[in-house]
Known about the structure:
Layout: H1 11-21, H2 24-31, H3 38-49, E1 67-69, E2 72-74, H4 93-104, H5 118-122
Antiparallel strand pairs: 1-2
Amino acid sequence: MTTRLDDCYSIERLRLAARARLPRPVFDFFDGGAEDEITLRENAGAFQRLRLAPRVLRDVSRVDATAMLVGAPAALPCAIAPTGAVGFGWRGGDVALARAAAQAGIPYTLSTSATASIEEIAD
């Protein structure tokens, strides 16, 4: 089954598209967790229990999503965390993630197993 990224409206659909496209060891590396995968299961369970309460008819003409993260301003309350061996799935992925974070105004953290050097990321 070939799934286009345009058809991936959920994380599970994106996961299935990656599974169909990547070599098995690379997919397993990205899809899995460390050791017994306890944290992976707990994180997935926490997101499944999370419910968003829709609020309608609210004034959204001035939305401010900025936040302070580790004492520094960020455009959104999120960051790109270390993603070990992202280069397995996308050549130059480390640099592309750093550029995207810089453009979005959010923090980026470089993995110790990144294929790019800290100098390449700083550029």
